[in-house]
Amino acid sequence: MRTRLQNWTLLLSSAALLAVPSVSSAQLSTFDIEKRIGAESHVGNVTGHAKDAEPAYRRYCVGCHGPLGDGNGENAPYMQPPMYQQPRNFQLGVFKCRSTPTGTLPTDQDLYDSITRGFDRSNMPQWNTLSKQERADLVAWVKHFSPRWAGEKPGTPITIPAEPEVTPERIKAGRDVFARVQCWKCHGVQGMANGPSASTLADDLGRPIAPFNFTEGARPKCGDTDKDIYRIFMTGLDGTPMPSYADNIKPEEAWDLVFYLRTFMAQKSPEKEMAKKLDLKPVDPDAPAPQQ
Amino acid sequence: MHVSSGSCLRKAIHSATSLFSLALVLAAVVLSCSPPAKALPAFARKYGLRCSACHESWPMLNYFGQKFKDNGYQLMNDRDSPIWQNPGYWPVTFRITPIWHRVSTGKVDIDTYSGGAISGSQIQRVTSSGFDLSGLDFHTGGVLEKNFSFYVLPSSDPTASFHFETVMARLDNLFGSSWLNVKLGKFELDNLLSEKRILTLTGNGGIYQLYHFIPVGDGNIFGQMGDNQLGVEVMGHSADDRTRYSASILSSSDGQVGLPYGNGYTGFFTGSQAFDAGRLGVQRVGFYAMVGEAPTYWLTQGGTLFTGQNGTGPSAIGNKSFSREGFVGQFYFGPHVDLTVITQHGEDSAWFGQGYGDLIDGVAGQNNTPGTTLPTGAQNPTWNGVLLEPHYVYSPQLIFIGRYETIRMSQQADGSAYTGIGPTGITGPSPSNLGNITTYTIGYRYNPFMTSRAGFAWHNEYNWLHQDGTGPGNTNINTSELLLGFDFDF
């Protein structure tokens, strides 16, 4: 009888010992996150469900974003700025690429586009091989990590006026905007990411971050159409030092700036040809900033 | 105390059972507690993606992995070039599989003995089992510079005798278009279900029979779609890889280097289109066609085979044609179940059907020298086949695999008017079912961990193959193989 009791004691002690690591590794936020497993997304006519996204998340995403969506996947330690960006911490509910004003939540379509488009100059690939349903489910899954969606609604997408025709005057006007709002301080006078502030930049979590180099041929992070570029500086990239200029730049000026930024880019464009004909000089950092 | 022999036996069995149970439990504990390995398979290490991102179960690609391959092993994130990698990064992975297997072959003619001397022979089943090794593969591949990539794969047999399984360089996104990519060298053909990424490992189940089928007595070794081939391939795809095409020109040498077969060329063409089917997933349908010529007349010198000059092998002319074509479908039924279907119609020239073609062991068994004629009744051998491969993907770490293949001759090389002894050894017309194959394979692969650092799979598999008329006295043969192994790469 005593032997049997000893055996049971040994067995229970072993079970307790085995259980210790699981208990200590569990995090409180797991419980919070699981409460939101009913999260949905709406992308076009597709409704995504967080509960259906786990297989795809485990297969494709967990290595970087981590099981809790906090950006602490097994590979996160090897993605160090400035060479790579760290994986996004979904729990914070802060996203760079949005169509909505700064400080607001992105729309489901914004998140869907980010998954589809991927992010150049990072390890986030384009997941356009996944079905629309899988991507919509993943959007819902991303949302379920953050309590922000429980209490807030996404912002209203900014209005982007129709793109005007590009002219030499508009490109010159764009250069004035570039000088006035001091884009060059980070991006450099020729868009080469070598402005005087470039080396001092850090994101909201204090991690070093580099400004976008327009000249190296890479796609801007949040899309490479003219509308995408317009949207980037009018909404800002939340969580980074790139602010929203919605209060500083009028819509027609914003298009001028888009055209001027195109002149920096490695890809051929009408703006680049016009700038060459104009013999447009870079802005002079020491000159007084043009007035609005 | 007297112990009966039966009791001893029972005790021995009991002990063995206990030991076996203990071994099983220990194996389960070891497997479930294995820590993640610290090394880095070539691409996963570079990009920090788990094996499962690109592989349905490694080495079989999923759609994302297929797109990565189609982009020349690039994520297209502007960080593909080696200049962005740690200088110490060296893209190399090795793969090998220690196994235990049991192979059983029916109807083998084996000598019988009487008084220490051969007294005759008898047809019997031969079974062997034991521990063994697979060959060793050293994979190295990646990006030389943006849109310039390579793949080199020295591969050995189980005795470490190496050959180049793959050696190729490729140029991608020519003129800025994903529709124009070129590779040159020795490479796997653009099969949607690639034999080089097969999930099964047994002798007969570790290949796709459909990709290697040769009618009985046929001398055409050149139409084997499962083998890597020497040539140049142009391929293109849409940005999301939903639409794909490829066209290759290959040397008709079955991938053997040294120009051993003269001047024959083969074309291999594929096209496919994928569709988004909502909750079911992405479905793909496509076609392939392999059309080629290969030699049948080996040049001679002084009446014997011309063995080559200036570094080339024997030379041959008298090209005859062959073809393989079919449809491919990859169908998903949600996140856990999928089915791949491949059909094939194959045809060889009657010359191949009569055994002309390959130099078997360096000897031209049949040589189509000038003036040679085909026997009366010789005709093009033709056949039809289908392959069905369902998977149940419980999770990225556990996949159950099934496969069924059947190949049926629709026209034998030795037709109804045939009167002589054909290359099959049969006098007169061949039976209509001669060489027909039916095979199935079942198995599973369990990955106790899934990281971007290394791969390990506990692999269990069973294959059964039946072939009509190839046993002694043209009887049917059944073979089977059971395999258990640790398949790992590092």
From the 3D structure, determine the CATH topology of the largest domain in chain A: Cytochrome Bc1 Complex, Chain D, domain 2
Low-pLDDT stretches of chain A are 9-28
For the biggest sheet of chain A, the summary is:
2 strands, antiparallel
Biggest sheet strand line-up of chain B: 3-6-7-8-9-10-11-12-13-18-19-20-21-22-23-24
Order of helices and strands of chain B: HHHEEHEEEEEEEEEEEEEEEEEHEEEEE
Structural class of chain B: mainly beta
The portion of residues assigned to helices of chain A is 40-55%
Structural class from helices and strands of chain A? mainly alpha
Topology:
The complex is a heterodimer of chains A (292) and B (490).
Chain A: H1 2-25, H2 28-35, E1 40-43, E2 46-49, H3 54-65, H4 108-117, H5 132-144, H6 148-151, H7 168-180, H8 184-187, H9 226-235, H10 251-264, H11 270-278
Antiparallel strand pairs in A: 1-2
Chain B: H1 5-33, H2 42-47, H3 51-54, E1 55-57, E2 60-61, H4 63-70, E3 92-96, E4 98-114, E5 117-133, E6 137-145, E7 148-156, E8 162-171, E9 181-187, E10 229-237, E11 243-251, E12 265-276, E13 282-294, E14 297-298, E15 300-301, E16 304-305, E17 316-317, E18 320-332, E19 337-348, H5 350-353, E20 382-395, E21 398-411, E22 437-446, E23 455-467, E24 477-489
Antiparallel strand pairs in B: 1-2, 3-6, 3-24, 4-5, 4-24, 6-7, 7-8, 8-9, 9-10, 10-11, 11-12, 12-13, 13-18, 14-17, 15-16, 18-19, 19-20, 20-21, 21-22, 22-23, 23-24
Describe the 3D structure.
The complex is a heterodimer of chains A (292) and B (490). Chain A is mainly alpha-helical and 292 residues long. Chain A has 2 domains: 33-151, Cytochrome Bc1 Complex, Chain D, domain 2, CATH 1.10.760; 168-278, Cytochrome Bc1 Complex, Chain D, domain 2. Chain A is built from 11 helices and 2 strands. Chain A has helices at residues 2-25, 28-35, 54-65, 108-117, 132-144, 148-151, 168-180, 184-187, 226-235, 251-264, 270-278; strands at residues 40-43, 46-49. Chain A has a two-stranded antiparallel sheet. In chain A, strand 1 (40-43) and strand 2 form a beta hairpin. In chain A, helix 7 packs across helix 10 (251-264). The radius of gyration of chain A is 24 Å and the shape is elongated. Chain A starts with a helix and ends in a 14-residue tail after the last helix. Mean pLDDT of chain A is 88; it is low at 9-28. With 490 residues, chain B is mainly beta. Chain B has one domain: Porin. Helices cover 10% and strands 45% of the residues of chain B. Chain B has a 16-stranded antiparallel beta barrel with strand order 3-6-7-8-9-10-11-12-13-18-19-20-21-22-23-24. The longest helix of chain B is centred in the N-terminal third of the chain and has 29 residues, at 5-33. Chain B starts with a helix and ends with a strand.
